[in-house]
Each structure stands twice: as C-alpha cells, then as structure tokens.
Design brief:
Length: 167
C-alpha cells in the first residue's frame, strides 16, 4: 500500500443464531465456490450495525432476526491474488434469535440455502468456511460470550451527517 493511500477496511456484521444446539448458517456462492457463512454482510451508508445485522439476516435467511447480545469485534484479512484483492474485514457480530422462515420470501442473490449445524459439524468443515471468523464467532457464542447491545454506539450522524463547525 502506498504511503499516501488510506487503509479502508470493509465493515461487516454477522448474526450468530443457536437453537437446540445447532447454529444457523448460509451456503452461498463465492468466487471460491459454495461456502458456508454466518448470515452476514456489509453495513450500508446511513444504517447502524444493529440495523445492518437485522437486514442482512432477513435477506440471507428469510427470517426475522432479533439481536439479544453483542459478541464482539473481529478482524480478518482475505487475499485473492488472481484478482489482486487484499481486503481486511472488520466484523461486528451479534447473537440473537430468529423466527420461522417467511413463506414465499426468496433468499438473497447468491444464497443457496440455510443450514442448522452443530459446533462440531461446523468445525469439521472449516475448509468450506467463507472466513476464519465463521467458526470463531460460533465458538465465542458457545463459550458464553455476551456483551450488551449498547456496546456499539451509533451516532445520529449516520442518518443525518454532522457538519464540522455546526452546533
């Protein structure tokens, strides 16, 4: 990276959902083929991480996600030499619950299906994970990590930008 180029990590969110010892994952099409991931995606301009995780979970699973706790901030770097990509992801992970799948609601483009897997099953297929953060987030949830939802503060300027020098 050139000295004048600013480091700009991609900010993402992930939903970690456990029900009866199984975790909700999505199987999605990637440049590396079909991979497994937590329901996850990018934070869009104008939304808080909490809003983003609710939206992404709905888009990828066709289920309403209710955040109950913040799991943590995770960072990982991903290289795709063939495409010249070198991306660092900052993932804000939340745990919570989901309702039943919404009848007739399609999954987001690229999502093939949802799966409910045990921690052992998830660990056993690490080569199919979209990111090393998939397993880490599930392991942290299984270990009991829970932080208050207000751990991540989203200033109102996300929706109405603050103007330097204004009141």
């Amino acid at each position: 990276m050139a000295a004048t180029e600013r480091f700009r990590p991609s900010v993402t969110v992930a939903a970690v959902v456990e029900r009866e010892g199984r975790y909700l994952l999505v199987e999605e099409e990637t440049g590396e083929g079909l991979m497994l991931n937590n329901p996850a995606g990018h934070v869009e301009q104008g939304e808080s991480p909490l809003q983003a995780v609710v939206r992404e979970a709905l888009e990828e699973t066709a289920r309403h996600f209710v955040p109950e706790a913040f799991l943590g901030v995770y960072l990982a770097r991903f290289l795709r030499p063939a495409r010249g990509e070198d991306v660092t992801y900052v993932r804000l992970a939340y745990s919570g619950s989901v309702g039943d799948a919404i009848a007739g609601r399609a999954l987001d483009t690229g999502i093939h299906r949802t799966l409910w897997l045990t921690l052992d099953e998830i660990a056993a297929c690490a080569e199919r994970h979209r990111s090393p953060l998939v397993l880490q987030c599930v392991q942290d949830h299984a270990a009991g990590r829970r932080l208050p939802l207000d751990t991540v503060f989203a200033h109102g300027s996300l929706q109405s930008p603050w103007v330097k020098g204004s009141a």
